[in-house]
Amino acid sequence: MENIINIEHLNKSYGYLKAVNDLSFRVKRGELFAFLGVNGAGKSTTISMICGQLKKDSGNIIVCGENIENSFDIISRRIGVVFQNSVLDAQLSARDNLRSRASLYGITGKAFEKRFKELAKLLEFEEFANRPLIKLSGGQKRRIDIARALLHKPEILILDEPTTGLDPQTRRLLWDTVENLRKEKKMTVFLTTHYMEEAADVDYVVILDSGIIAAEGTPLELKNKYVGDYITLYGCDEAKISELGLPYKKIRDAFRITVPNVAKVTELIVSYPDIFTDYEVVKGKMDDVFLAVTGKNLPGGAIK
Amino acid sequence: MKILFNIVRRNLKLFFKDKGMFFSSLITPIILLVLYAAFLAKTYRDSFASALPDGVTIPNSVLNGTVASQLISALLAVSCVTVAFCSNLLMIQDKANGSIRDFTVSPVRRSAVAAGYYIASAASTLIVTISALAVCMIYIANQGWYMTFSDVLLVIIDVVLLTLFGTALSSCVNFFLSTSGQASAVGTIVSAGYGFICGAYMPIASFGEGLQKVLSFMPGTYGTCLLKNHMMRGVFAEMENLGFPPEVMKEVRDGVDYNIYFFDNHVSVSAMYTVLIGAILLFTGLFVLFHIMKRRAK
Known about the structure:
heterodimer; A: 11 helices; 14 strands; B: mainly alpha; 12 helices; 80% helix
């Protein structure tokens, strides 16, 4: 797969504060890519530079084969951005908001009406399309934000913490929509999130810490590299568990044993078949990866 | 063109949806008119009557018409600029709430965004100033009407030009502001100070020579003077018909800034138009340039 975003040695400072420090990474076409990091890690600064909102100090930003320095007009037609906080006009309706934003891309008249209908159906906002945004719920507003980002059928959808504060139903709708867009339109999605379960489902993760890349890889690679697996054993005595000589924790009606890798699990099962009668093996979570890599907990944590 | 039309439509909708912004803009000239009529009209009338040479009398309708025309021309000159500052706040709001990012992330030209703000602000200010002009005309008609149809047309043109000047000036000033607190502070300063420096609250002729020379460099001065020329021409013609001597009329004209001088040279009406239009073009050009420069500097 070709690289659709290519970031090379990107730097950005605010006075003495180095917000982004020699950052290099690639996003492949059609990929669901996630940026993880606590507040101040440099996620939004990087996104702002990719979207042409902020000037970089040095480095290269290549999007869809175009350099942002001299081809932002071309790039801007290929990216759609959902900002962390809604930047639409609260006093205007969804229709008025989308009409004014669509015209920025030259989509007016019948072309706008057609696109508006498509998006209203896709994001299920037909019934509140004529209400002012100020009267909509957070989830309803978020759908309009996403519709705005999709108006011009971008190749890359940039989502800056899109699900923060959303109810589970809207969060599900958002992810279903993103999944459909990826499957049907081969859209690349660049995401920043605090939610580890969202990061667990992506194709590639970059963990940022104080403006530098602390770790990167697929969720599986990161889990294998930075955290172990867990075995949950049901219906056995604590005495037998202690025979294994591994750290364990008693939970409600079972014991959870921490093992370094899957090979160790196989070895244990073969060695102690009488203990392993009812069990399950679970991979470590992205929360654990993040903690192991940065020594920090993400405030958002896992979705409850 | 469609892009610009849609940006202007969005800006105007936001202006009229914001009832506070709309009504505060609309009410400003009305409050000024009430204050002028209630507190200043009598003072102006007495002062004007006492300034006439001994033995010269003036009919009440002419006196009232003169004072009303002087007051209204001053009021309109101030309103066109202060209302523009009141209604030209969307640019600052867009910065404060982040909406501007939705524009800058798109391929739309920065000059189109700037033009969108300018046109919408000029249109909304014009709605208010033309409404104020209509109310002012009713007031003058009630006090003493001496204007011809062409005078009225020229007054309308003056109001339009002064509104465009106010919009261009406020656009340049507001470009550098990013919070509503800053906008409010600037609005207060402009409301308090502009009337003095454009010769609306007090005729420039009543100031010291040095200050007169400084104020003659302000383009707004010529806007006020244009309004005075077109609003007071008829009533001064009536005074001449009544037999007022030419030297008295010259003093009266000089005293109310009907005649204005740039380093002792009388400025003609056509020169006033040239200065005002030049200032509009200059400030509008600067505003568009600021937007383009900002994009490049980012």
